[in-house]
Structures are given as C-alpha cells and as structure tokens.
C-alpha cells in the first residue's frame, strides 16, 4: 500500500475541496427550497401556487434524470459541475434582481425553479460518481457518510438561514445563494484529481446507453425494490413538508418558526448521517430499510396532532435521523456495486425511481391542502406510509439481502 493510500481521509485535499464546494451548493439549494413556498404563501400567493413552484423545481427529476446520467458518464464531471454552478448563479441572481425591484412574477419563478432543479440533477450525479475516484476504496463508506452529514447540515443551516434572510428582506436568500454557487465553482477549479477513469472513445446512441443503465439496475433485485419503496415515501414527504408550512401559518406562526423546526430536523439528520457508517458496518441493508420505514410510519401521524413547534421539531428530527441512515446505506451499496463507467446512468435511474414522482407529490400537496384539512391530509399520507412499512417487512429480498464482499470495512 502506498503512502497516499495510507493517509486518513481528513488529509485528502481534493476530497475536502469537493466536499466543501458541494456543501455550499447544497446549502444554497436548501435555502431556495425553503424560500419559494414562503414567498408564495406569505406574499399574495396560495398553497396551489406554492405547489406549482415546487412542481417546477422537482420536475427535472422526472424529465432529466436518465439523459443526465448518460452525459455524466460521457462528459468531464468537473466541467459539468462548474457549468451547473454557473447556471444556478445566473438564474437565482435574476430572482434577486427581480425582487429587489419589487417584482414577483410566477412564470419567472417557475422557469428559475426548473433551471435550478435541472442543474442540481447534473451536479449531484456528477459529484456522487466522482467521489469514488477522489478517495481511496477503503475510505468510501466514511466519505459517503460525511457527504450525507454535509447534506443534512445544509438542511440544518439552510432552513433557519433561509427563513431568517427571508424575514429580513425577501430578496436576501437569493443573493446569498447566488454568491454561494460562485464560491462553489471556485473550489472545483482547485481540485487536482480526475473525476472519472478513462472513457471509451466510441459513443453509442443515448437511448441505448440509458437502456443499459436501466437493465443493470433492474437486474439488481435489492436495489430495484429499495428505490421503488423509497420513491413512494419521497412523494409522501413532499405532502408532509407543505402541510407543515400551512399548519404553522394557520396557527399564527411566522416563517421563522418553520426555520426553527427545520433546524431541529437538520440536527437529527446530521446525527443520523454521522452514525451512518457505524450502522452500515453492523446492520444488513434490508434491516435498515425496515426499521426506518417503521419509524416514519410511527412519527408521521404526530404531525396532525400538534401545532407545538417544539414537538414538531422533535418529530421531524426523528424522521430525519432515520432518513439519513437509509441514504448512507443506499449510497454505499449502490456506489460499491456499480462499475465506474455506469455510475452516472445507474445513479440517474435510481434517482428517477426514487425521486422522479416528487414533482407530482408537491403538486398534489397543493391541491390536497386546498380541498382538505391539514389533519386529514397528514393522516392520509400516514396511512400510506404504514402500508409501505408492512410491504418492506414482508418482502423476502428486503429482509435477506446482505452487503457484498468488501462493502463493509
């Protein structure tokens, strides 16, 4: 083993730069994700309009995941990430300028939300695929655990920061996010290692490459079952998230209250992510899924039973802790078993199956909350979550799958 291989992960300069830049981008995405519904609900909009903006932001998950995976495997991943930061800087900056001049135009927000969501797709796939080439193999579980902790920390800081900036002046969150993408772009320019192995010179039809990624993932029984189950839960969480905002508004709360609850949720997520590699080494992946689904099924109905911010914060913290564990487990399993030349496509297929319907979840949330009470909406999604938990527990492939040789350390 070489000296470079023996160095601890904390001494890997390129990973630190990649981790930092991606963290800043994730923080910006959290801030805008928090700000869009606040902007629509508190300034002349409605739950339906908030749902439309959420739909536009999440629609790229449905439309662009598969082609994005092909191009992430074809193109230079570093250049893709730089381009994504540049697109986000310009588009989000345009919202800041618009609000600075007192203009709030729904079609403009829809376009920007779609562009930002599209850039996040390419960025996230590129970064996930790059990690395996930036760190040593034995450091991969720890690196992905740190990445998940970073994402959760972005949620922890982004929720209260976005709400606080919005309460200060409504254009401030967009200025902050635009500048953050500029800083993230600069960190990418400083990384020395390549983000991919050598590529084949010949290129096939895009559809053929997409089909190859689909066939590979669908041939993995555990991955196929896991991403479909998680995809159903992600739709439910879109409804739950907008339900929380309406609950706080109806009870006389302010956007800052949502920020506090988001901070509590972020703490839970960070703790779950930091302990993720510990659970990966000790629990089978299916056990993680079953336990997490059971926790979600138990906690979701509580959102309909209280408007107390402290209790809501505790509930969301518990659900985020569980969610972080499942993300670390899925990330380690998928990255380890997928060939490097297919990382982008397989990650895209997994993302499509697990998150592609999120846009419809946000859209459905707006219409459900406009026609039903918040309590009825939350209890409805809770019943679906309970059914998914039972399904996971009864699935033989979920119950029995183990990590492959070399996955744990």
From TrEMBL:
It is found in: Cell membrane. GO terms for cellular component: plasma membrane. The keyword Ion transport does not apply. GO terms for molecular function: transmembrane transporter activity. The keyword Repeat does not apply. Its main location: membrane. It holds the Pfam family MFS_1. Keywords: Cell membrane, Membrane, Transmembrane, Transmembrane helix. Residues 14-404 form the Major facilitator superfamily (MFS) profile domain. It comes from the Bacteria. The chain crosses the membrane at residues 17-44, 50-72, 84-106, 171-191, 226-248, 254-274, 286-304, 310-335, 347-372, 378-398. Gene3D superfamilies: MFS general substrate transporter like domains. It is a multi-pass membrane protein. This is Predicted arabinose efflux permease, MFS family. It comes from Lentzea fradiae.
